[in-house]
């Protein structure tokens, strides 16, 4: 009888454990033999296309090559639309469900603001910054959390100046505001004469994102080695830097190994691909997917299952700022602090859930 009761108790404990596990979402997945990011996405999210969210959430572990996962690697899996369930280290589903979006409230300024640390961003860089986005967007909420953690004695304020071209010059160059975000950092090691490299300090990465190639489903593009892209024509709209084609010693554009069309709008890029005038649109994964949905072209475009680049977003401070070093140290220390205690990851996962729900 004791053995039977013992077995029953073990069985009940197992059922209870499974019940608790099923109430959680996201968590840690251990890579198994035969896995790829697509296989994992299909298994956990029932959607092969969500391999990119697994990659972007584990860039430091995986690196730029999507096929670089290895057996035994621990991957952090974001909760998206209630999936996946039952993984160790997951969050309760109620906690992982985004609350109603809260757009930022822009308050009128006054002269007292000049004594604070003044941070500069702009509207229209979804999902990273935007006045109508939840808490001003992913990067706005990250930096706000970091500054709250830093708790500078003089206080701080986030300002929205929607003319991006005025940020580097004159607003930051003249220290009219103290720091700007979020900005890409060129490959300053190989391009030290780049104006941004010459004039600005960069914080530790706030976020690293995948730059993907979006192609016509009827003309798939293979990318397993650089030579696969030679002779191809890519499209990247004006306002988006072209240096990613030449950084890290690539020199694809400089040496004429590829061509890049640079039209005025993103819409024109997608039209060029469908017309056969370009082989792929090159955009960060969020902006690219959002535009495809807005244009109603989700059934016409595929994502090449290998990023063409990884770009990081940073806080920038002009080198001539009299307190540049102190400000940079404060921002970096605060960013590390919110990463270490889980605040950063919770914010990222909340925004990723919102972003993917929109796709």
Can you tell me about this structure?
The chain has helices at residues 2-22, 37-45, 51-56, 59-62, 93-96, 138-150, 165-172, 195-199, 266-274, 285-294, 324-340, 343-358, and strands spanning 24-25, 27-30, 74-77, 91-92, 117-121, 156-160, 179-184, 200-202, 207-216, 233-235, 259-261, 280-284, 301-303, 309-318. With 359 residues, it is an alpha/beta fold. Helix 6 crosses helix 11 (324-340) and helix 6 (138-150) runs antiparallel to helix 12. The longest helix is centred in the first third of the chain and has 21 residues, at 2-22. It starts with a helix and ends with a helix.
Give the CA-CA distance, first to last residue: 57 Å
Number of helices: 12
Low-confidence stretches: 1-21
Give me the CATH superfamily of the largest domain.
Periplasmic binding protein-like II
Annotated CATH topology of the largest domain: D-Maltodextrin-Binding Protein, domain 2
Average pLDDT level: 91
CATH top-level class of the largest domain: Alpha Beta
Binned strand content: 15-25%
Helix/strand order, N-terminal first: HEEHHHEEHEHEHEHEEEEHEHEEHH
Number of distinct beta strands:
14
* Portion in helices: 25-40%
How many discrete domains? Answer: 3
The value of Rg in angstroms is 23 Å
User: Which structural class do you get from the secondary structure elements?
Assistant: alpha/beta
CATH architecture of the largest domain: 3-Layer(aba) Sandwich
Shape: globular
């Amino acid at each position: 009888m004791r053995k039977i009761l013992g077995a029953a108790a073990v069985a009940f404990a197992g059922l209870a454990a499974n019940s608790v596990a099923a109430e959680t979402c996201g968590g840690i997945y251990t890579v198994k033999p035969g896995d790829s990011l697509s296989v994992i996405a299909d298994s956990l999210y029932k959607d092969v296309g969500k391999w990119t969210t697994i990659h972007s959430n584990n860039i430091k572990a995986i690196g730029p090559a999507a096929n670089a996962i290895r057996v035994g690697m621990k991957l952090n899996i974001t909760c998206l639309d209630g999936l996946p369930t039952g993984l160790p280290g997951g969050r309760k589903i109620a906690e992982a469900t985004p609350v109603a979006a809260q757009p930022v409230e822009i308050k009128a300024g006054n002269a007292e603001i000049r004594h604070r640390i003044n941070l500069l961003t702009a509207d229209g860089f979804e999902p990273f910054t935007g006045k109508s986005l939840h808490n001003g967007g992913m990067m706005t909420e990250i930096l706000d959390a970091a500054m709250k953690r830093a708790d500078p004695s003089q206080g701080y304020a986030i300002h929205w100046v929607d003319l991006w071209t005025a940020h580097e010059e004159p607003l930051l160059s003249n220290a009219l505001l103290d720091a700007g975000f979020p900005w890409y950092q060129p490959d300053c090691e190989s391009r030290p004469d780049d104006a941004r490299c010459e004039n600005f300090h960069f914080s530790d990465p706030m976020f690293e994102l995948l730059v993907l190639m979006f192609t016509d489903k009827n003309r798939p593009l293979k990318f397993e080695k650089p030579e696969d892209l030679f002779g191809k024509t890519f499209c990247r709209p004006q306002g988006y830097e072209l240096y990613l084609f030449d950084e890290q010693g690539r020199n694809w554009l400089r040496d004429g190994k590829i061509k890049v069309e640079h039209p005025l709008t993103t819409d024109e890029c997608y039209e060029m691909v469908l017309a056969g005038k370009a082989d792929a649109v090159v955009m960060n994964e969020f902006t690219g997917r959002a535009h495809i949905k807005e244009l109603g072209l989700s059934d016409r475009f595929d994502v090449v299952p290998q990023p063409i680049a990884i770009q990081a977003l940073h806080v920038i401070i002009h080198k001539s700022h009299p307190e540049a070093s102190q400000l940079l140290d404060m921002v970096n220390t605060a960013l590390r602090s919110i990463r270490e205690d889980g605040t950063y990851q919770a914010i990222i996962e909340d925004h990723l859930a919102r972003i993917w729900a929109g796709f």
